[in-house]
Design goal:
Number of helices: 9
CATH class: Mainly Alpha
CATH superfamily: dinb family like domain
Number of strands: 4
Strand content: 5-15%
Shape: globular
Length: 215
């Protein structure tokens, strides 16, 4: 499996959403390739646009992040702190935010190492792409004691770090495949799409579904 294929796995296992659509189980474990995204035990099909240029990436990543944070902040405080129904790895909104934040940090590590000419450890030291579910469980444990408001601030901070990387690159640098050795057969932009717009969209859908079911 080359880096491009591993990037597809990252997009599915981490975000539960888009690069190449798959079917997955409730722990975001990939099951089988599909041309559309299907949720197990769900009757509807999800589709979402995939940014293909720098302006599209900036627009959609900002829009999806703002939609996510606006939705969370509009909820009553007791709902923001409430546990989700059983069946999800992330047990509440804080867990979802911690998950997003840590995948931001991992991307920043990959970027720092890769742009320095080194080979990043992906997805993280001690984990392979196949063991990403175990990594996600570790992330959930790592942030579960952090207060929600502090977790929000941490997410916003790492979000702006990601946005600064997008801003400093040209469209060609972002979306030309194999432009950088460390991104393998895909592009820097593909990593950023998965770490931002598609991940925020996944998070918002999960929070909407879980808070609705718990009220």
């Amino acid at each position: 499996m080359d880096k491009g294929q591993r990037m597809d796995t990252f997009a599915i296992i981490s975000t539960g959403l888009i690069m190449i659509s798959r079917k997955w189980d409730r722990h975001h474990c990939p099951i089988k390739w599909y041309g559309i995204i299907l949720l197990r035990n769900q009757k509807h099909i999800l589709t979402m646009p995939r940014p293909k240029s720098k302006p599209e990436l900036i627009q959609l990543s900002n829009k999806n992040f703002e939609n996510l944070m606006d939705w969370i902040n509009a909820l009553p405080e007791n709902v923001q702190e409430k546990e989700f129904p059983k069946g999800t790895l992330n047990r509440n909104i804080r867990d979802v935010i911690g998950h997003l934040h840590h995948w931001h940090l991992m991307f920043l590590d990959w970027y720092s190492e890769g742009m320095a000419g080194n080979k990043p450890e992906m997805p993280a030291k001690g984990y392979s792409w196949k063991s990403t579910p175990e990594l996600n469980r570790w992330i959930q444990r790592e942030y579960r004691e952090i207060p929600l408001n502090k977790m929000k601030k941490m997410l916003v901070d790492s979000y702006y770090h990601i946005q600064s990387i997008i801003q400093q690159h040209s469209n060609n640098e972002l979306f030309e495949k194999k432009k950088y050795k460390w991104t393998g057969s895909t592009s820097l932009g593909s990593y950023l799409v998965s770490a931002t717009s598609s991940h925020y969209d996944w998070a918002l859908k999960l929070i909407k579904r879980s808070t609705k079911a718990s009220t």
